Amino acid sequence: MAKKEQWGSRIGFLLSAVGSAVGLGNIWRFPYQAYENGGGAFLIPYFIAALTAGIPLIIFEFAIGHRMRSSLPTIFQRLSKRRGYRNWEWIGWFQPLLAIFIATFYAVILSWVFYYIGLSFTNGWGSNCETFFFDEFLQTSSSPFAFGQINPVILILTALIWFLIWIIVFRGIRKGIELAGKIFMPVLAVLMLILMFHQIFQPGAAIGLDALFKPDFRRLTDINLWIRAYGQVFFSMSLGVGTMITYASYLPKESDIVNNAFLTGLLDCAFSLISGIMIFATLGSMALMQNASIQDVVQGGPSLTFVTIPQVLNRMPASHIFGPLFFVSLAIAGLSSIISLIEPLLSAMIERLKISRKQGVTVICLAGFVFSTLFTFRSGILTLDIADFFSSNFGMLTGGLSELILVCWILKPDFLADHANLTSDFKVGTFWKLCVSFLTPVILFIILAMNISQAFAPAGENYGGYSFTELFVFGWLMMGILIILSLIIQNLSSRRTQEMIRHIWEEITPRDKGEI
Ligand code: PFF
Q: Could you tell me the CA-to-CA distances from 310 to 35, 68, 120, 304, 396 in Å, in that order?
C-alpha cells in the first residue's frame, strides 16, 4: 500500500486546519447570523457553544484522526469493532458525503464572490445594490421550485472554482493544501485587519459596535438562538463532517493535539469577531449616513454581504481599494475552506478503492460541479439557503452527535484523552470529558429533536417562511438521501455482501466450456 501522505510541518498543518475553519462561515455567515439573531444576544450562546462544544470537539476530532491514522470509513469501522458492536462505518461515509454536498453550494456562493471581485473595481453594481443582486445578477425566482434557467455567468465561475479546487487538491497534501494554507492565511489575516481598522474609525461605527456587543440577556431563553449558535459553531469550525479528523490523520506520530486544537478554535473565533466588527461598524456608519437605525438600513440573511457592503462601498471615497480587498479576502477564505471539504471523501476513495489521488480528485470535482449546477438556476439562492440551513443545523450536528455517541457512550472517551495527553503540552481532563460525553451530546440531542419537531410547525412558522414541501425536498430529503446512501455503501463494502456479489457474479457469468 502506498505510504500515507503527511504534513510537512506543524505550522503547515495548523494553517491548513485554520484555513478550513476560517471561510465564508466567518465573513459571510457569522455577521448575518449575529445580525438576524439580535447582535449582542447572539454572542453569548455563540461563545458558550464555542467553548463547550467547538473547541472540545476539535480536540476530539484531532485525537481520533491522529490515533487511527486512516480514512473515515475505516476509522469508524475499526472503532465499532473494538467492542464487537454493530458496524458504525456508515458515519464514515455520511460525513464525507455531507462535506461534498456542502461543497456543491459553497462553490456557488464563491462564484458570486468572484463576480463581485470584478465589479468592485468600479462599483459595477450601480446605485441600487439590492435590485442589482437579486434581479439583475441572480434574477431570483419566486420560489425554490421555480427553477427558471441556468445563469451562464454563475455556471462558468462555478466551473472555474471547481477547477481551482482540482488544481490545489491534485497537488497533494504538502504541495497543494499545505502550501495554500501557508500563503492564504497570513494574507487573509493582514487584509481583514486592514479592513477592520479602516471601518472602526469611520463616523457612526460605534452605533454598529454597540449593536454587536450589547448583550440582551432576555433573549437567552429563545431556543432558536441556541440552535443557530451551535449550527454556526459547527459550520465555522468545520465539525461533524470529517474534515478535522482527516486532516489530523496526516499528522506525523509526534504531534501536539490539544495545543493545535485550541489555536485552531481560537483563531476561528478571532476571525469571526474581526469580520463581525468590520461589518457591524460598516452598518453603523451607514445608519449614521441615512440617519436611521441599523435595522432600517440593512437587509439580513445571506444577502447582507452582497447588498449591504456594496451599498456602503458606493459611499466610500476609496472604494476601489477597499471593495476588491474585501471580496478578495472572502474568496481566499472560501477557497481554503472548500478544499478541505473534498479531502474526507477523497482519502476514503484512495484507501478503499485503491485509486490514485489524481483519479479520485478528478471524479469528485467533476461530480461536484455537476451537482453544483442545481444551485446555478434562478432559484439558486433559495435552494442554497435551505441546503445550508439543513447541512449545518441537521447534517453536521448529526455527524457530530453520532461520533460522540460511538466514542463516548459506547467506547468511553478515556482512550482518546490518554492519546491526546501523550503528545500534548496541555492536558485534557475532567472538563473536556464532561463536555464531550455529556454536555455536547445532550445539547445536540435536544437541538436535533427541536429541529425535527419544527419541521412540522404550522405554515408561516417554518424556517425562512418556506413551505413544508420546499423544506422537505431541499432539506430533509437531501439529508435522508445522504444517510441512506451511507448505509447502502456500508452494506456494499461489508465482506458478506461482497461475497454474495461475487457469488451472484459467478452464477450469471458463463463458465469455461471445459469446466462442464
Ligand atoms: N468552516 C468553513 C467556513 O466557516 O466557511 C466551512 C466548512 C469547511 C465547513 C469545511 C465544513 C468543513 F468541513
A: 17, 47, 8, 10, 32
Expressed in angstroms and rounded, the spacing between residue 317 Cα and the centre of ligand 1 is 34
Half-sphere exposure for 419 (CA within 13 Å, toward CB): 18
Q: How many angstroms separate the CA atoms of 391 and 388, rounded?
A: 5
Q: What is the pLDDT of residues 9-67, one digit of tens each?
A: 999 999 999 999 999 999 988 988 888 888 888 999 999 999 999 999 999 999 999 99
What's the whole-model pTM score?
A: 0.92
Strand partners of residue 218: none
Give the pLDDT confidence score for residue 427 in this predicted structure. Answer: 92
512/516 Cα distance (integer angstroms): 8
The crossing angle, in degrees rounded to 10, of helices 223-236 and 396-404 is 80
Cβ–ligand 1 contact at 398 (below 6 Å): no
- What would the grid cell of residue 215 be? 448583550
238 lines ligand 1 (CB under 6 A): yes
Beta carbons within 8 Å of 211's beta carbon, 6+ residues apart: 39, 40, 280, 283, 284, 294
Dump pLDDT digits (tens) for 359-381: 999 999 999 999 999 999 999 99
Three-state DSSP state, 150? strand
What are 54's three cell numbers? 467547538
- Cβ of 272 less than 6 Å from ligand 1: no
Q: What are the grid coordinates assigned to 219, written together?
A: 433573549
How many CA atoms are closer than 13 Å to the CA of 428, on its beta-carbon side?
33
